[in-house]
Amino acid sequence: MSVRANDLTRLLDVVAAMNDAPDGGFERAMLTSAAELIACDTVSYNEHRLDTWQELRCVVEPSYVERSPVRREYLRHLGGHPPVEACARGRLATGDTTSLSDLMTQREYRRLPIYADYFRHRGVEDQLVAVVKARDLRTVLVVFSRSRRGFGDRDRTVLRLLLPHLQHAVRHRRRLAALTSSVANRTTPLGPDVWDRLTERERDIVTCLASGGTDQKIARTLAISPRTVGKHLENVYRKVNVPGRVALVAQLAVA
């Protein structure tokens, strides 16, 4: 199925939101933007460990769902959540998209303990699921939930278009976190003498960078071009005596 031009524009908005988000807010920014792309009641980012049926990370929009008193029932029945179980059994793999209505009939779904104890109370009748990762006994899922049955071809198409960007963003964030941690163990924080060597504009850029800003986001904040941001950062790297962005972020993290 072909998608409309405005769908592609909104898809690019989701990608931009992911790229511009600070490291700690990637999931929330992505979910908020994705909910405007695919109509849903809630959307969540979920990481699970399949050998222990443990939830490693969960971010939900709207955020109040995370604090629901019945959420403990979801965790109790995690292994019975159809897409999680399908990943564990090898029926779903990295890069797949599916829905609850693809995996089972409505009658079968409503007979599940996880429906009776959790999804029924939340009014969830169908979910559209993107399998960002399913390997090494771990899954990363992005799940769109609705109170009515059925996601259309348009929803499925735009999710398939979005999925590679989700995978790239997750890999990038993890690699950056690992690199930052590794470099931080080998660096010392910025001292006042180094800070004094920076120009006022360079300090502004470094401050934005410390808050998780990308070149594009810093450029918008300071009303300059991304190319100018890059030039200033090159000067900062030279003055601070670091090889690049990751090392600078690491020094800022321990400052």
Give a description of the structure:
With 255 residues, the protein is α+β, with helices and mostly antiparallel strands. It is 56% helix and 15% strand. The protein has 13 helices and five strands.
Short key terms for the protein model shown above:
255 residues; alpha+beta; five-stranded antiparallel β-sheet; 13 helices; 5 strands; elongated; HTH luxR-type domain-containing protein; Sig_transdc_resp-reg_C-effctor; Tscrpt_reg_LuxR_C; DNA binding; transcription
Strand order of the largest sheet: 2-1-5-4-3
Mean pLDDT: 85
Return the structural class. Answer: alpha+beta
The N- and C-terminal alpha carbons lie at a distance of: 51 Å
Question: How many helices?
Answer: 13
Task: Tell me the major beta sheet.
Answer: 5 strands, antiparallel
Helix content, binned percent: 55-70%
Percentage of residues in strands:
5-15%
Shape: elongated
Radius of gyration: 21 Å
Sequence of secondary-structure elements: HHEEHHEHHHEEHHHHHH
How many beta strands in the DSSP annotation? 5
**Model regions low in confidence, pLDDT < 50 over at least 5 residues:** none
Pfam families: GerE
GO molecular function: DNA binding
Protein name: HTH luxR-type domain-containing protein
InterPro entries: Sig_transdc_resp-reg_C-effctor, Tscrpt_reg_LuxR_C, WH-like_DNA-bd_sf
